[in-house]
């Protein structure tokens, strides 16, 4: 199997979906001849033509709104927003239309669309290019929110998102676009959209994360192993709906849980998981649930961004503290 | 407006634009200019008249239901019936309508049942199930946000080489939103088969048109998007029908989008929750009653000896009966069971929400 980067895996999945289904349409700013600002759509316009791979005017609200209209007609639009900081004009369309058109028409009209956007900091990008506001999206009923953390999962989850009959926001970890490499077989096989991935099994502490933060989380698990602490690492991968059973099963086994996310702490998705554990697994707990997150401030620009993002060291400290709690 | 002319400084003019205004029937029913061919079709004129009268009857009844606690907030079309009826009458069944919340007349013309509209305003999602025009979009409440959908629908038609047209209706307030401009701009780029219709009823709740735009017309907004905008007397159903026929035919023919500004007047309150006397005078409204579309068409037809008192009475009775029957069916519709609020949330309800549904249904303790 060939080894590809995460962004190449995205490209493979898009090409496969377009090849398999003439209803799949890719749209966004610079997705055509330029192949997207991260090259996720490179080669698609040449292969599938400008009608199915279209460069839109520079208008993000439009991109999301077009997707809703196209999807209502049975197309399967895949819109690209260049950076998560430019996603916000789409919120109106996601909340008021994409996520609820099926419900408000009682199934008469549906919205099989995907909105892809890079997620997170760490590439020394300009202002507004380093957002991680996934919790905001996960709060919207009727939507699916998905975030891969490896080329293999990017490929399988994106195929699943495109084939899913409901709207999906697909968050791609910017920092891993080229840093994450792995073997991907372009076999058209999708991964499930509501199952978390156990990346590493362990009996002492559960580490839960998603997206680019899995890199630090896995590094932390290695460091803990050197200390004789066996960490179980869960890639949540789908935030809405999320796999409660895998989370609860793991915590029942380990009794300790550290949730890691790059996004700010207050109102972050880690709070949702901590609440689930409090409601459903309190008696399993041997230590308080810990969160290692971004701070409650604006993501700083390039010079300070690495101080905002949880480090492997912070995760190790939190996990050790959980293991030493008595 | 002389202030809009800059001194030429010897610079060449590289583009000129014009906006036309369309009207046939004067407020008193007399003819201002030769009527379009369809106006000789008495059955069609009767159908247009019937649709407007039905809508007015329906509105009156809906307000009565709201005032007696049997319907939620409701938006009447009083005074602007010609817009939605004229537009819908020029559409084909396979076209797709993207209405705002005040376009009942268009939906009724396209086969949506009166009781469905009552269900919607009565707070029941089943009102959006839409008999008849099953691909039409539901009422759009967030103003103008359906315009990008119309462009998306039209793009799908073009991609699939289907000779269909998307028709997007909104009010004058919506033309101030980026949504509408973004959609029009994209439609212009791709010459999409879409017609945008702005019902300019002079008021966006309490905000008058002069605070909405510095433009002389709303129609000229199409020029910035690269296509034709026409201003139409929106209280003249013949003009509305003619403008819609032209625009829809051009869009279907591959000539690209069109924009229609239907100039009319909202004689009623914004909704049943509004009191328009807070921001406009009774005298202003009274003066505008002289222009309203139903009397106008009736005056024309009576003047032409094409309409009798007996026909009027028969039609009034027919409309009354239709509305009453629909109200009965609406009031007889039981609310859905609470747990159905989860239905059609996703194609298949994920287990975590299915557990909540079961709890709401009184099954289990999820």
TrEMBL record, chain A:
Cofactor dependency: thiamine diphosphate
UniProt keywords, alphabetically: Oxidoreductase, Thiamine pyrophosphate
Q: Which GO terms describe its molecular function?
A: oxidoreductase activity
Ranges of residues in domain Transketolase-like pyrimidine-binding:
4-179
Classification via Gene3D superfamilies: 3.40.50.920, 3.40.50.970
One Pfam family from the record: Transketolase_C
Alphabetized PANTHER family for the sequence: PYRUVATE DEHYDROGENASE E1 COMPONENT BETA SUBUNIT (PTHR43257), PYRUVATE DEHYDROGENASE E1 COMPONENT SUBUNIT BETA (PTHR43257:SF2)
Q: What's this protein's name?
A: 2-oxoisovalerate dehydrogenase
Which species is this UniProt entry from? Bradyrhizobium retamae
Q: What is the lineage of its organism?
A: Bacteria, Pseudomonadati, Pseudomonadota, Alphaproteobacteria, Hyphomicrobiales
């Amino acid at each position: 199997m060939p080894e590809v980067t995460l962004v190449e895996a995205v490209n493979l999945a898009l090409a496969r979906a377009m090849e398999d289904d003439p209803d799949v349409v890719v749209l966004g700013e610079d997705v055509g001849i330029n192949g997207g600002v991260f090259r996720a759509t490179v080669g698609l316009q040449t292969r599938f033509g400008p009608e199915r791979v279209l460069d839109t005017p520079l208008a993000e609200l439009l991109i999301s709104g077009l997707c809703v209209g196209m999807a209502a007609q049975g197309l399967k639009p895949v819109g690209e927003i260049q950076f998560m900081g430019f996603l916000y004009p789409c919120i109106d369309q996601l909340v008021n239309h994409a996520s609820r058109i099926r419900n408000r028409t009682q199934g008469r009209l549906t919205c099989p669309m995907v909105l892809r956007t890079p997620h997170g900091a760490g590439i020394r990008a300009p202002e507004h290019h380093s957002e991680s506001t996934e919790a905001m999206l996960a709060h919207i009923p009727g939507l699916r929110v998905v975030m891969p953390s490896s080329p293999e999962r990017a490929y399988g989850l994106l195929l699943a998102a495109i084939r899913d009959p409901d709207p999906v926001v697909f968050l791609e970890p910017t920092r891993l676009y080229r840093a994450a490499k792995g073997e991907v077989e372009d076999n058209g096989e999708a991964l499930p959209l509501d199952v978390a991935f156990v990346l590493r099994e362990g009996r002492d502490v559960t580490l839960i994360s998603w997206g680019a933060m899995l890199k630090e989380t896995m590094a932390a698990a290695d460091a803990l192993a050197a200390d004789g602490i066996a960490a179980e690492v869960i890639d949540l991968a789908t935030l809405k709906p999320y796999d409660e059973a895998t989370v609860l099963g793991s915590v029942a086994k380990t009794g300790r849980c550290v949730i890691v996310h790059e996004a700010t702490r207050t109102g972050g998705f880690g709070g949702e998981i901590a609440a689930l554990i409090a409601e459903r697994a309190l008696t399993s707990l041997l230590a308080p649930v810990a969160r290692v997150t971004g701070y409650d401030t604006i993501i700083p620009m390039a010079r300070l961004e690495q101080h905002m993002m949880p480090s492997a060291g912070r995760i190790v400290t939190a996990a050790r503290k959980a293991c030493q709690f008595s | 407006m002389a202030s809009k002319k800059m001194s030429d400084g010897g610079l060449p003019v590289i583009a000129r634009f014009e906006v036309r205004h369309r009207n046939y029937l004067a407020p008193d029913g007399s003819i201002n200019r030769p009527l379009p061919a369809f106006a000789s079709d008495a059955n069609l004129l009767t159908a247009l008249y019937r649709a407007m009268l039905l809508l007015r009857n329906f509105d009156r009844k809906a307000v009565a239901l709201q005032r007696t606690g049997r319907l939620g907030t409701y938006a009447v079309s009083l005074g602007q019936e010609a817009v939605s009826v004229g537009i819908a009458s020029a559409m084909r069944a396979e076209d797709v309508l993207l209405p705002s919340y005040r376009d009942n007349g268009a939906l009724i013309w396209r086969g949506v049942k009166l009781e469905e509209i009552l269900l919607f305003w009565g707070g029941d999602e089943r009102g959006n199930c839409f008999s008849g025009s099953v691909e039409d979009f539901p009422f759009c409440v967030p103003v103008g946000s359906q315009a990008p959908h119309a462009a998306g629908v039209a793009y799908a038609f073009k991609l699939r080489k289907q000779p269909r047209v998307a028709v997007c209706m909104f009010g004058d307030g919506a033309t101030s939103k980026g949504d509408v401009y973004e959609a029009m701009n994209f439609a212009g780029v791709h010459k999409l088969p879409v017609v945008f219709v702005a019902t300019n009823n002079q008021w966006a709740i309490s905000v008058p048109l002069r605070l909405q735009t510095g433009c002389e017309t709303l129609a000229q907004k199409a020029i910035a998007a690269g296509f034709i905008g026409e201003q139409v007397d929106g209280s003249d159903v013949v003009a509305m029908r003619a403008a819609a026929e032209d625009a829809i035919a051009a869009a279907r023919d591959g000539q690209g989008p069109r924009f229609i500004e239907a100039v009319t007047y909202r004689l009623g309150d914004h909704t049943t929750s509004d009191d328009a006397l807070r921001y406009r005078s009774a005298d202003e409204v009274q003066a505008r009653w002289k222009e309203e579309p139903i009397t106008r068409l009736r005056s024309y037809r009576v003047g032409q000896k094409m309409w009798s008192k007996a026909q009027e009475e028969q039609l009034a009775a027919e409309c009354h009966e239709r509305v009453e029957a629909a109200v009965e069916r609406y009031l007889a519709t039981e609310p859905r069971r609470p747990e159905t609020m989860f239905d059609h949330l996703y194609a298949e309800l994920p287990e975590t929400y299915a557990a909540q549904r079961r709890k709401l249904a009184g099954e289990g303790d999820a």
